[in-house]
Amino acid sequence: MDYLYFPGCTLYTKAKNFDQTARDCSLLLGFQLKELPNWTCCGATFPLATDNIMALLPPSRILARAREEGTTLTTLCSVCFNVIKRTNRLIRNDGDKRDTINNFMETNYQGDLRVLHYLEILKQDVGFPRIQEKMKKPLTGLKAAPYYGCMLLRPFEEMEFDDKEKPTLFEGFLEAMGAEAIDFPYKIECCGSFQSVGSPEVATECGYKILGSAVKNGAEVVVSTCPLCTFNIDHKQADIKQKYLDFKPIPVLYFTQLLGIAMGLDYQTLGFGQNFVDPLPLLKGKGFI
Amino acid sequence: MKIELTREKVHNEFAKKVELISGQNLFACYQCGNCTAGCPVAFAMEVGPHEVIRYTLLGLEEEALAVNTFWLCASCLQCTSRCPKGIDIARVMDALRMVILRKKDRKDHIHVSEFQEGFLEKVPQIAFISGFRKFLS
Amino acid sequence: MKENGTFIKRAMVIGGGIAGISASIDIGNAGYDVILVEKLPSIGGKMLQLSETFPTLDCAQCTLTPKTVETGQHPHIRLLTHSEVEGVEGKAGDFTVKIRRKAAYVDWGKCTGCGLCQEKCPSKKPSEFERGMGTGKAIYTLSPQAVPNKPVINPSECRYFLEKKCRVCEKVCPVGAIDYEQEDRFIEEKVGAIIAAVGFDLMPMETFGEYGYGAIPDVIDGLAFERINSASGPTTGQIRRPSDGKVPKEVVFIQCTGSRDPERYMPYCSRVCCMYTAKHARLYKHKVHDGQVYIFYMDIRSTGKGYEEFIQQGMEEEGILYLRGRVSRIFRDGEKVAVWGVDTLTGKKVEVSADMVVLATAIIPQGEAKGLAQKLRIHVDDYGFFTEAERKLRPVETDREGIYIAGCAQGPKDIADAVAHANASASKVQALFAKH
Amino acid sequence: MKRLGVFICHCGVNIAGTVDVKSVAEKTGRVEDVAHSADYIYMCSEPGQQIIREAIRERGLEGVVVACCSPSMHENTFRKAVKSEGMNPYLCEIANIREQCSWVHQKEKTKATEKAEEIILATLEKVRENEKLEAISVSINRSAGVIGGGIAGMTAALDLAEGGYEVLLIEKEQALGGHMTQLSKTFPDLHPALPDLLAKAREIERHPKIDLHCYSEMEDVKGYVGNFELTIRKKATSVDWGRCNGCGLCIRDCPVEYVSPFERGLGVRKAIDLLYPGSVPQKPVIRRDHCRYFHDGSCRKCEEVCPEKAIRFDQQDERIGKKVGAIVVATGFELYPTEQLGEYGYGEIPDVIDGLALERMFSVDGPTQGRIIRPSDGTVPKEIVFIQCVASRDPDRYMPYCSRICCMYTAKQAKIYKEQVPDGQPYIFYMDIRADAKGYEEFLQKTIEEKGLLYLRGRVSRVFQDDGKVRILGVDTLTGKMVEVAADMVVLATAIVPSQGVKDLASKLRATVDRHGFLTEAHIKLYPVESSTKGIYLAGCGQSPKDISDTVSQASATASKIQALLSTDQLLQDPLIAFVDENICSGCGICVEVCPYEAREMNSRRGISVVHSALCQGCGACIAACPNFACELRNSSSVQTLRMLETFV
Question: For C89-135, what is each residue's pLDDT tens digit?
């Protein structure tokens, strides 16, 4: 079974390791991420101003093109997932906005595409037991804290991804790989998102609260699903260290990197170089590499 | 510290514009403060979201637009998901940004030219795209 | 039973809480026969679980016990406890009600209420009456002062029913009243009028994701706090938190949990929480003088007689801190419970690291209220509260002649209003009987 | 020597938390004539009473002392328990070791334990001398009297009449309905108030079992539960209601107009007029203080024009006596007079009115035919300010309690206002919005959202006239800003206070009122509709402020209690009353004057004083006054009292 795949701008460049590990793991799990031909930018955040039709065009263009290629579209980055899924739902429900968009883009998209996040594919279509079968190196003894962030979960009625206060999908994925999923209260709190551009010190504070809480609850590694969150809680650890002297940095991995380790991929291809804190000492210590 | 309330003040143009852009009815807000209580960046805000909504309702345009509240809002929708009256607070914050960014004299909240050296290379593009959408006119 | 022609002058009251009891006593005192049907093994309803009542801080036992005893001994009132209404046919003056008398596995005829079986029973289960805090036995009465003082075996907790072992209660019973083979029995009663007083329930804490889905041990609801504060409760009245039994020094009370929340839970106000929370806060301060109480509220609703003065006294004399704002989220933070609230009067976000949190959860109709309404063929509103004939001038009647409603089954109200409401429904029954 | 029993209650921790109950039980057990002593966590419960009953049966007890809470709580519970074992109930006495010992000495546990022991020993002294007594049965009058013809009195009267009892309904005004007749619409469904009310009033007027007396007041009451004798003063209406057919010619031609209190100063009435158009009964009354005939005899217009010759200028007040078994007090409420509110202009600012005045404006048959206008210049107000908690929740200066219904009627009035004046702006200054009953919160939030009512959380410190407008100095505590409004009109939600004359009515009925004048109920939670005086019942705002549906519930509740009381034709009275020792009584008569219940008369034939057993309440005034100790109280003789005191000394 092949899936139309929308990588998104950052996964092409600064988060290449995230994209590459996903493609490799998919092959191991028996399905292929078929990149959507000539895709364009997803428009980043879903426009909250009701009269901002123009901002809906980028995601609509992607949906229309994907619909020509197939019936389901998947993405890895939670920001792309959020804006494409919400636009898809808006086009399905809001008749006159659908007509305006279709007239402008001369397309006839009715919103009937199935938009899935990669984790949803692993759970619903592939199934966690399949991962356990194919797994080469179970991550027993690894205390991993899943960090959901905001874009996957909210708005709750539109994303229909998981429970809005106590999500468990990510925990199931980690436990399927034998790791011990660490629950921590900040797993659904915001990382500061694009504030790292406008007010970097606020993003630092958010990053610190999230990592601090994960460490306090016994996490050895934090697992994320979005390059922007990862930047705010991983790369910002330098700024956090300056402000909070007693802070001990902790490795932050994409969930596909962890999947890659479990599937026994050669760790050179998992792109640990791009992670701010090098996870190798921890992974070697646990005997996963 | 003092406001003079009149009919025009209450149904003022500013509040109507914010209601139009956000599509929300500000009169529905019964000032329970759940949004401010749950906001992850409220610690850095001069006034909480519930209070800037109150300013808007009372027609205090200058004061409402002078605070940093909606510039710090990261649209994480924690407030919207918990509002007992079903008001989409994130949309109201966006609307307040739009009121400034769409003003005739259109001044940006951030200036790309002032970024330090190497900043553009460090930060992932998503941050810039969503950031610029929220901060640039 | 005065019966002339076909009109049967006997009333049935469904629900043995304070409303059902008040209505039954009034109809009984007027000389008519009453059948009081109660789902639980004994009467008293939620009031049994209360420690003290506002605004006078009378202990609930002392004010309720004379009423339950009077109902138990009343010549005109027949108690059908541990029973449920299965079906209702007929019209005013000639209702035929089918009642399921649930198997108690104890022959109440023989049983003298000596209590030996309860002492010797080995099983320990979290007692529902104690809101899961105290432990109860498989064979139990709701409280030592239960009326009728007859025990009941809970098959899902009893070793004999689960593993065919034990039978201790049978061995130790001096009058051989234990009967494991007892079956549910069905009886029919003919009555002339019916009062539905099935009371209320509290919205389960599992509903609230933002407050931990009921999984945080030191987050309890109002009734649980009543049990902690009650002399006959699991902690014999000492305020101790459920997780480690320590005396909590920082206690947060959260109002409107599930109430006044049209978007996510119930849009209506549950009316009594402001008062019982203020009472809880004051009772807590009476027992833990150096403790600090925080109450997160939106509007304090103390409208009854002496209520406003009760709340102001609580603020002035016991230093109870009222914070106007909702709590967005609470989560376990090591030993403590982190509370993210706000004080809209200063506009500041407020974070409290509390030892214990008490949620004033919304009042919702009894679980089977909607089913009973179908059986009685009367209307309910969207939440399951019975709909009265006319909101202002006929608050106790329904659209069907001969069927009346009383107490919280019609809508949340405090004990004083429930008693007055129940007496009003009794008055309507007496008027109906007098007319025929 | 009688065999006695002592039973001590823990009352949960209320007693056991302070008094060492076990040691007291053990010590009192050692007294020689105490055959049995026991303690239990809740003596008043079924198992508790079981302990007492078994002890009486097994130990053959002839006297019982129960040490527990106040006798007013459980005296008859325990007397019924001992009676079921055949023991005379009056040989069972209560030793109050809760209110009189443990609750007041919580800090001195050892001394409290000693005191509890002494209280029990003293009560034992009393029981030793107690005689066996039988309750006195008294025949009762199976009818009820209802004072007050508002919605509360009407509901109680109708329920009692439907229950088959004779009802005497007394109303001070000339027509039924009370304040509800002044309302335009009721919250939350905005039904018009008058139609249903007038239907009920007509039902009362026609009901064979209801004896209706409007424009009458209760002047005096004698007797006791079951046998009350009411004296009613029927004020002179100067119109023969029997002959008057309600044609209205007299009203049309009457030259005198005066500002009507019913219209709250916004409308007028003629000197001879109805209470309001369509009132029930539809009968006019001449207001003598306004009528020219009574002023200087210069006008007889109404008499000349009346086709039925029904005018009676010479009519005098009439007094009639009625016997009833029980009385419902449904005297209703007044609003706190705006004249006494200095900070809101002492009632002198024309555009500052109270809630009832606005109701009159909104009423279609009101002075402005339902249109809201500024009293000063008749224009439509565009800026209207509603101020909540005026004189309520104000312990320091006015009333400390909450008047309960103002939040709801203010929201209703604001909604009606917005429907009439779509571009008008209502501001509501409040502290807490109290919309707690069924459907109230939903009505409130929906109205605020749809009508755009601006709720400002904060009190108004001052209102004053400022060039044609009314300036409001208020605050919005949610933004912490002072708020000023130049309003066209201000509506004050003033506090609900008891009607005039309730204090002396209560003293005549020997019912108690609290310091504000609201009638006190026997127990706030469990006997909310009964007064502490037997046979007197309370309904409506006379007991405390409440809305119409709670009033109707309470009124029906009193009807239920009365039907229970009057269902038997015999009533049992306590035998603990005074008696006279004939050989000592010298017939001096001092006791007759001193008795507050007129229960003592001189028997002229035998020259000694006699006790009227049904009237005597056992207060003991005559015993204290009797110069030669000729009379005693049953089971509380002087000997007993002295013996009890010795145990304490």
Answer: 999 999 999 999 999 999 998 887 778 888 889 988 888 888 888 88
Q: Give the pLDDT confidence of D37-86 residue by residue, as tens digits.
A: 999 887 887 788 889 999 999 989 999 999 998 887 788 889 989 998 99
Whether the ipTM is more than 0.85: the answer is: no
Q: Supply the DSSP string of C335-365, one letter for each residue.
A: TEEEEEEEETTTTEEEEEEESEEEEEEPEEE
Q: With contact defined as beta carbons under 8 Å apart, do D500 and D334 qualify?
A: yes
Q: What's the pLDDT band for C5 if we cut at 50, 70, 90?
A: low
D555-570 core/surface letters (b: 16 or more CB in 10 A; e: else): bbbbbbbbbbbbeeee
By the CB < 8 Å criterion, does A196 face chain B?
yes
Chains D and A lie in contact, requiring 3 or more CB pairs less than 8 Å apart: no
d(CA C170, CA C106): 9
Q: What architecture is the D4-129 domain classified under in CATH? A: 3-Layer(aba) Sandwich (3.40)
Beta bridge partners of D386: D428, D491
Q: Cβ distance C97 to C85 under 8 Å?
A: yes
Residues listed for chain A: 289
Angstrom CA distances, C338 to A187, B43, C210, C295, C355, stand at 15, 16, 12, 15, 9
- For domain D336-497, say whether CATH 3.50.50.60 is its number: yes
Please give the structure tokens belonging to residue A150: 């905001």
Interchain contact, C342 vs B83, CB within 8 Å: no
The correct CATH number of A2-118 out of 1.10.155.10, 3.40.50.1370, 3.40.50.970, 1.20.1050.140 is 1.20.1050.140
Relative orientation angle of helices D71-83 and C60-73, to the nearest 10 degrees: 30
Say how far apart CA A103 and CA D380 lie, in whole Å: 50
What values do phi and psi take at D555, rounded to 5? -65, -45
Report chain D residues whose CB lies below 8 A from the CB of B27: 448-449, 452-454
Q: Does C213 touch chain A (CB under 8 A)?
A: yes
| Contact (CB<8Å) C332/A163 | no
Residue A207 CB contacts under 8 Å (≥ 6 apart), including other chains: A191, A192, A232, A233, A236, A237, A239, A240
Instruction: Give me the pLDDT at residue D46, please.
Output: 76
Instruction: Identify whether the C-beta of residue C25 lies closer than 8 Å to the C-beta of residue C77.
Output: yes
Helix (H, G, I), strand (E, B) or coil at D243: coil
**A199–B72 CB contact, under 8 Å:** yes
Q: What is the CA radius of gyration of chain B?
A: 16
- Taking only Cα atoms into account, the Rg of chain A, rounded to an integer number of angstroms, comes to 19
Distances (CA, A) of D579 to C408, D89, D197, D276, D590: 50, 20, 52, 56, 15
Q: Do A192 and B74 touch (CB under 8 A)?
A: yes
CA–CA min distance B125, chain D (Å)? 39
Rounded CA-CA distance D25/D12 in Å is: 16
- D436 pLDDT more than 70: yes
Query: DSSP secondary structure string, C18-55?
Result: HHHHHHHHHHHHTT-EEEEE-SSSSS-GGGGG-SEETT
Assigned CATH topology for domain A127-285: Rossmann fold (3.40.50)
pLDDT per position as a tens digit, C11-42: 999 999 999 999 999 999 999 999 999 999 99
Residue A165 at interface with chain C, using a CB cutoff of 8 Å: yes
Could you give the domains of chain C?
A: 10-102+184-199+366-435 (3.50.50.60), 116-172 (no CATH), 203-363 (3.50.50.60)
Whose CA is closest to B130, among A164, A188, A151, A16? A151
- Nearest-angstrom CA–CA distance, A222 and A253: 6
- Give the chain C residue whose CA is nearest to the CA of A214: C333
Residue from the list D427, D448, D481 with its beta carbon closest to the beta carbon of B1: D481
Residue A91: count other Cβ atoms within 10 Å of its Cβ.
24
